[in-house]
Design goal:
This protein is α+β, with helices and mostly antiparallel strands. The chain is built from 5 helices and 13 strands. It is about 25% helix and about 40% strand.
């Protein structure tokens, strides 16, 4: 098999992504996007004018801003206490959850092998590279056959972003003829996410916080340079979960906190992919996280935040293997 080192992979994929960033890559984007008309100058001016008018009205009617701030503080403290209890429970059970995922991965692999006709397959048990996006700080990275995993945490208040971490596997067609293959993989996620919108005196969509998480399988055709992508299939993409914390009232609002335990395993599959004779393909199993931490404008009493935790306890993201079934 031709040798491909990490540097070659990174350089080639950077070029390929820049050139092809179009339809295929956009399908993998879990980003929570919106068309914000308030960014347009005139519409934004009108919105801020209405907010000023409403605050002026509240002031004239004797609305007690100081008392409202104290109520908000008490409310946020209680919401955070409830979320921390939920998170502590998820951490307590995190080791059991991961062990269940490992057993499930073994069972799933055995089931796929039973269905493989003809029984020509190869199991890629270890990635040759784990590559996070530039802004993602990995606290632990471990490569082990059928147990490769990463741990990380993302916290942001008042900002937005998109981060990802990919497990890279390499396979070469052993035949001097074209081959048709099926590709199966499995991504297990065990973590806890929190999104909070800050309190405010008037409704402001900018205080909304959101988190979106997805898993995807990408096939890079290495016989093309820069590497190319085959046509997208629905089995390559799997939604892991998402939450949104938004202002709940048109007037004075206490803010909200939403949380979710991410404890799930996701099958990813590509069917009937044509591989050139002696062709090399790089399979990438990726977790993608998009987030938006709310920030307030006029009348805001604090920023929102997002907290995505795949580091505490036995929280982690695990990719056991890639199964290649040769059909021809």
């Amino acid at each position: 098999m031709s040798e491909i080192n990490e540097y070659q992979v990174k350089m080639a994929l950077k070029v390929a992504k820049d050139l092809s960033a179009g339809p295929n890559l956009q399908l993998y984007d879990a980003d929570i996007r919106r068309v914000d008309l308030l960014e347009r100058s005139q519409v934004g001016t009108n919105q801020r004018a209405l907010e000023s008018l409403y605050i002026s009205y509240l002031t004239k009617t004797g609305f007690e801003v100081d008392r409202f701030e104290k109520i908000c503080e008490q409310h946020q403290t209680e919401l955070c206490r409830i979320v921390e209890e939920q998170k502590a429970d998820a951490i307590k059970h995190s080791s059991y959850t991961i062990e269940a995922f490992r057993r499930g991965a073994d069972s799933r692999r055995d089931a796929v092998l039973e269905l493989a006709v003809p029984p020509t397959y190869e199991i890629l048990r270890s990635p040759f590279l784990i590559w996070p996006s530039q802004g993602l700080d990995i606290s632990e990275e471990h490569v082990e056959p059928s147990k490769s995993r990463v741990k990380f945490r993302i916290f942001s208040d008042g900002a937005s972003g998109r981060e990802a971490v990919g497990f890279y596997f390499l396979w070469q067609n052993p035949s001097h003829r074209r081959a048709v293959i099926n590709v199966d993989s499995y991504l297990a996620v065990n973590g806890f996410c929190t999104a909070a919108s800050g309190p405010g005196i008037v409704y402001d969509f900018d205080r909304t916080s959101s988190i979106g998480v997805s898993a995807n399988l990408t096939l890079w055709q290495w016989w093309d340079q820069p590497p190319s992508l085959p046509m997208f299939q629905a089995g390559q993409l799997n939604s892991v979960g998402g939450i949104v914390a938004r202002p709940t009232f048109i007037g004075p609002d206490l803010g909200s906190v939403q949380s979710m335990t991410l404890s799930s395993a996701h099958d990813l599959r590509y069917e009937k992919c044509l591989i050139e004779a002696d062709g090399i393909v790089v399979f990438v199993v990726t977790l993608v996280i998009s987030y938006q931490a709310g920030h307030g404008g006029l009348g805001s009493l604090g920023n929102g935040y997002v907290d995505i935790d795949f580091a505490s306890g036995d929280f982690q993201v695990m990719c056991p293997d890639v199964l290649v079934t040769v059909l021809t």
